[in-house]
Amino acid sequence: SEVTYLHPDGTSTVQTTGPGESVMEAAVRNGVPGIVGECGGALSCSTCHVYVDEACWQEFGEVGEMEDDMLDGVATDRLPHSRLSCQIRPTAQQRLRVTTPESQY
Ligand code: FES
């Protein structure tokens, strides 16, 4: 999947996720700024928060119960299209745009 990460400073980064790889993992592997992923995807840190583009929001499923709880604790405002990027694993055909928040801490 091709993921475009839009940053608050107006720049963007485009990366490709590997098979089964999450949006957080691809970001960390490639040093994409703005995504930390401190807990490695265990749903215990909230430092992988992103805003999913409204146009593709529905493609990436429901926010899980634990994810929902963790989203309440994100450092930058939770918005209707907030997700934890460790919980998004796009298929090869999917295209995704996410915006990274101002801060993860
Ligand atoms: Fe920690 Fe996503 S990487 S909750």
Automatic annotation (TrEMBL):
It comes from the Bacteria. Residues 1-19 are annotated as: Disordered. InterPro entries: 2Fe-2S_ferredoxin-like_sf, 2Fe-2S_ferredoxin-type, Adrenodoxin-like, Adrenodoxin_Fe-S_BS, Beta-grasp_dom_sf. Its cofactor is [2Fe-2S] cluster. One of its GO terms (biological process) is P450-containing electron transport chain. One of its GO terms (cellular component) is cytosol. The keyword Acyltransferase does not apply. The keyword Iron-sulfur applies. CDD domains: fer2. GO terms for molecular function: 2 iron, 2 sulfur cluster binding; electron transfer activity; metal ion binding. It holds the Pfam family Fer2. Transmembrane segments: none annotated. Residues 1-104 form the 2Fe-2S ferredoxin-type domain. Coiled coil: none annotated. Residues 10-19 have a biased composition (Polar residues). Keywords: 2Fe-2S, Iron, Iron-sulfur, Metal-binding. Belongs to the adrenodoxin/putidaredoxin family. This is 2Fe-2S iron-sulfur cluster binding domain-containing protein. It comes from Gordonia mangrovi.
